[in-house]
Amino acid sequence: MLIDDLILARALHVLALVHWIGGVGFVTLVVLPYAISRSSAAEGLALFDAVERRFASQVRLSIPIAGAAGLWLTYRMDLWERFRDFHFWWMGAMFGLWLVFMTVVFVVEPLFNDRFEKMAARDPLAALDRLCRLHRILLAIAALTILGAVAGAHGWLF
Length: 158
Hints:
4 helices
């Protein structure tokens, strides 16, 4: 029996999202608060860096897989019109979220890593606070997008 390409694409899409956004949730809600609670901000920043470095190498696979699978689903199911329909706002939100994370992981982090490291060396607590704030914003947007996408995919029109 051949696996239906839509089933495979949807499964890969969900698996990649669980890894990617689940990891962002773990870093945001567990690692960063724990890092901030360390006795020294430098120690907390080193902890965050160790976890984030390991996660970043993994997410460099899950984000492109999520995007490729989502693109394939949109193409195969001919869902392009949904991007123009306000009731399917979550389609654009999913693409926008994906684009933001692709840009952050593949462009912003490599380009500005040296600048961030210099700032972190001067003021590790400010660096941790900035990371925490950014991660909270991205996680909130991701959670809203996921909520909208799951509800919308099951017929709830907003």
